[in-house]
Write a structure and sequence with these properties.
The chain is mainly α and 288 residues long. It contains 12 helices and no strands. The radius of gyration is 18 Å and the shape is globular.
């Protein structure tokens, strides 16, 4: 695979992910735990097929305890994302999701002893300002739970990323598969604990399965393939397409806007991501 194809696959992945907010808004009745269950049910077979196709099934036994911790982190990532999008605006949720690289840097520093560059510390400070603005805005509008859920989701992805590094695993998909299975179980358990039903209208079921199989799992497959030839810093920049497109789609199709606090805080977070990623891209060679 050449570099240009890899970029195309990564862009296609982010475009698929950006459609998820719009799909969430089509779900009328199902609660977050039922959505988590059925979205995971749609995701698991696709990821399992990809793992088998790439020979990853032979590496499932080698993920170890760190891999299990990473899969548990994905429960927080997937569950937090579902709850956040159901509880706050799409713009607010995706801006807070994009804070994950900074939480990863802090967790890697604390757990793995990884050095955090000065530029990254500055980016973390800028992102923290944006997060504070958005969380305060959510508090004023009664959407604090959704904001906190988005930060929990970002933290779950950070746990997933750091455990990949700790275990020295280059292929994340076996852990993603295990995380999908764990999320399926967690959705059923939480629905039972909340007294909610997993039986949902056919339309909600279809949207949830489609989201899991196509936009979530399909995006992960494309992004994983693209990441084999595209540097990490460029992948970070490409992933910002999701942050910009997801709120735009729900605004164009459904007229869902964003509050002033969300837009101001989002600008800070996006600026922080750009500042951190462009610094890394200048330090690393770009393939021809």
């Amino acid at each position: 695979m050449d570099y240009r194809t890899g970029v195309g696959l990564a862009v296609a992945a982010t475009m698929l992910w950006s459609c998820q907010g719009l799909i969430f808004r089509q779900i009328a009745v199902a609660d977050p735990w039922a959505i988590l269950f059925w979205r995971s049910a749609g995701m698991v077979p696709v990821v399992a097929a990809f793992v088998i196709w790439t020979g990853g099934a032979r590496r499932l036994h080698a993920i170890g305890a760190a891999g299990v911790v990473g899969a548990l982190g994905l429960i927080l990532a997937f569950g937090g994302a579902v709850y956040a999008i159901q509880s706050t605006s799409i713009a607010n949720a995706v801006f807070l999701f994009s804070a994950s690289p900074f939480i990863t840097a802090l967790l890697g520093w604390a757990v793995l002893g990884e050095r955090v560059r000065g530029r990254t510390w500055a980016s973390i400070g800028v992102a923290a300002v944006g997060i504070a603005v958005m969380v305060q805005g959510g508090l004023d509008r009664g959407a604090l739970a959704g904001n906190l859920a988005a930060l929990i989701s970002a933290s779950g992805f950070a746990v997933f990323t750091v455990t990949l590094r700790r275990a020295g695993l280059a292929d994340p998909m076996p852990i993603v598969l295990l995380g999908g299975i764990f999320s399926l179980i967690a959705g059923a358990v939480m629905a039972g604990a909340a007294g909610a039903s997993l039986i949902v209208p056919v339309a909600d079921l279809g949207w949830s399965l489609f989201m899991g199989a196509v936009t979530l799992a399909g995006g992960m497959v494309l992004y994983t393939l693209g990441s084999r030839v595209v540097p990490a810093a460029e992948l970070t920049l490409i992933s910002l397409l999701e942050v910009m497109l997801a709120p735009l789609l729900v605004w164009l199709v459904m007229g869902e806007g964003a509050s002033r606090a969300t837009m101001i805080g989002g600008v800070f977070v996006l600026a922080a991501v750009l500042m951190n990623a462009t610094g890394r891209s200048r330090a690393a060679p770009i393939p021809a």
